[in-house]
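Researcher: Quick test of sequence recovery. Tokens follow.
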């Protein structure tokens, strides 16, 4: 027992050293918990002000975007032709828009606000917001007249719109055509100076055959008598300016024509290396063989 207590007997200098060590530990603990430390390095006042100004600008843009979305003005419309973009502006979710498009893809129609909610499963609050703008054809609003309308539809077919006069908004009424695809259709139309035939819709990137069929149910290329140039007499420069051609391809066609003493049929063009034979139907809208 005496030996055990001897371990706790310290000299005056040892006692002072222990006291000093405890004091240092306490001071360090106080500094750690109450000291003015920060996890972020302090920025110069100029940079901090720039960051605050940038954050204010971002907050302002967010507020403007939210206000623009909430203040979209709606005109009466047929909900059967809601596009992805217009559905988003009205507050519909992608799933709700997809349900409507799937319903229309089966050649089924929405004939009332109740039908619209049943098909899309939109909330009651959203339906109350947009339903006042729904505009259905009169024969759909009056079931007693629907049968008469269907019986007379063959006698009074729906007049198709001119595809060369259609706007992007007109094209977006077709199921499967959104903002980007309608812009491509219009841009390609402008690049070729207007559509001359329905086959040229196949040249628009992303436009599937199913969507083309739906498009041609409401739009048509009006029969305009465009003069065709003779494939056996047109020169390289004039040929290179036509759709589907560039200077190099035009040079090959003219060179082949000279070597064969004329071209007898469009099928012969397939003998030219690199010739886009899949575009021959479109090429025939601009050229003829006399």
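Model:
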């Amino acid at each position: 027992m005496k030996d055990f207590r001897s371990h706790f007997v310290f000299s005056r200098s040892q006692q002072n050293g222990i006291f000093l060590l405890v004091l240092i530990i306490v001071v360090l603990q106080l500094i750690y918990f109450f000291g003015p430390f920060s996890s972020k390095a302090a920025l110069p006042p100029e940079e901090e002000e720039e960051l605050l100004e940038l954050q204010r600008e971002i907050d302002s843009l967010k507020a403007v975007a939210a206000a623009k979305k909430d203040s979209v003005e709606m005109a009466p419309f047929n909900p059967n032709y809601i596009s992805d973009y217009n559905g988003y502006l009205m507050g519909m979710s992608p799933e709700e828009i997809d349900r409507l498009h799937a319903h229309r893809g089966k050649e089924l129609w929405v004939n009332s606000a109740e039908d619209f909610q049943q098909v899309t499963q939109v909330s009651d609050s959203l339906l109350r917001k947009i339903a006042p703008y729904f505009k259905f054809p009169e024969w759909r609003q009056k079931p007693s007249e629907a049968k008469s309308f269907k019986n007379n539809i063959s006698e009074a077919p729906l007049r198709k719109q001119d595809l060369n006069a259609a706007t992007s908004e007109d094209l977006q009424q077709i199921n499967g055509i959104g903002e980007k695809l309608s812009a491509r259709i219009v841009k390609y139309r402008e690049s070729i100076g207007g559509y001359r035939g329905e086959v040229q819709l196949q040249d628009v990137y992303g436009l599937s055959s199913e969507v083309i069929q739906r498009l041609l149910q409401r739009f048509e290329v009006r029969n305009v008598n465009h003069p065709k140039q003779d494939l056996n007499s047109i020169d390289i420069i004039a040929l290179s300016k036509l759709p589907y051609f560039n200077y190099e391809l035009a040079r090959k066609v003219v060179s082949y024509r000279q070597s064969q003493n004329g071209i007898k049929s469009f099928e012969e063009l397939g003998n030219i290396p690199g010739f886009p034979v899949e575009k021959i139907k479109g090429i025939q809208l601009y050229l003829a063989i006399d």
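The chain has a mean pLDDT of 82.
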